[in-house]
C-alpha cells in the first residue's frame, strides 16, 4: 500500500526512497493527479529523516511522454488538491488561469523538486519528452539506459521551450538552441557527452546501477549532502539561472496567449512534423 494511485513509493535499501511513475499504459503521461501525487511523494521522502537519497524512476518502456494532453477539465481538477504556491486563480478568464496553472504545477513543482535538500537521482529509460524533461532535470544526477532519448518539441508546437527552462544549463548555449530549433531527439550517449546525463548503462543494468549509486551516496552524512547540494545549486543560481528562467516562463505564457488568439488553442497545431508525431 503506497497511498498513491499513479506511482509507487519504495524503500529498496536503507536510507533510499524510490518513487516510480506508474502509468505505463499512458507512457507515464503527466496529468494533474500524477503531478500532485509526485509532489506528495517527494515531500514524504524529504520529510522522512531516515531517507538520504531519492530515486525517481518509471515503469514501462518509456520514462514519460510529457504532459497528458488528453486530460479534460484540467483547470477544474486543481480544486482537488492543496496547492503549494500562492498564485491561484486557476479558473479565472483568459491567460490568467493558464499562467496560474503552469506557475503551480509546472515551473512551480519542478523548481520545488530541484530545491529538495536531499540528493535526487533520475533513472531514465526509453522516451522522455518535453514535460518529461521537467521531471528529470530537477534531479541532481541522471542515469540513463542505452535506449533513453530526450526531446523538447515545444518549438515545433509554437512555444519557445518547456516551462522549466533549464535548457542552457543542461546542454550549453549552442546545443540548447539547436535542440530547441530542430526539435530533434537527443540520444543518451549524446546527452552524456554534453554533461546532461551522468552515466549511460545497458537497459538491464539501469535499476541496479542507480541503486548502487544511491547506496554509495547514502553512506555519507545527510547534513553534509544537503550542504553540498545547496552550495552547487547556489553556484548555478549565481549565474542568473532563476531570473533567466522567469523570463523564459513569461515568454512561454506569451506563446500560449498568441496561439490561443490565432489558433484557438494553446499550441500551434501546424508545426508538429509527422516524424515527431510518429516517434512521440
Ligand atoms: Zn505551457
SS elements, strand count: 9
Mean pLDDT: 94
SSE pattern, N- to C-terminal: EEHEHHHEEHEEHHEHEHHHH
Strand order of the largest sheet: 1-2-3-4-6-9
Superfamily (CATH H level) name: 2-enoyl-CoA Hydratase, Chain A, domain 1
Hetero groups in this structure are: zinc ion
Q: Please, how many helices?
A: 12
Walkthrough of the structure:
This protein has 280 residues and is of the alpha/beta class. The chain has a single domain (7-279), classed as Alpha-Beta Complex (2-enoyl-CoA Hydratase, Chain A, domain 1), CATH 3.90.226. Helices cover 45% and strands 14% of the residues. It has helices at residues 32-47, 74-77, 94-105, 107-114, 133-136, 167-171, 173-182, 188-194, 206-218, 222-238, 241-263, 274-279; strands at 7-13, 16-21, 53-58, 120-124, 127-129, 141-145, 149-151, 186-187, 199-201. It has a 6-stranded mixed beta sheet with strand order 1-2-3-4-6-9, sandwiched between helices. Strands 5-7-8 form a 3-stranded mixed beta sheet. Helix 3 runs parallel beside helix 4. It is globular.
Q: Quick summary of this structure?
A:
The protein has twelve helices and nine strands.
Element layout with pairings:
Blueprint: E1 7-13, E2 16-21, H1 32-47, E3 53-58, H2 74-77, H3 94-105, H4 107-114, E4 120-124, E5 127-129, H5 133-136, E6 141-145, E7 149-151, H6 167-171, H7 173-182, E8 186-187, H8 188-194, E9 199-201, H9 206-218, H10 222-238, H11 241-263, H12 274-279
Helix pairs in contact: 3-4
Bound molecules: zinc ion (ZN).
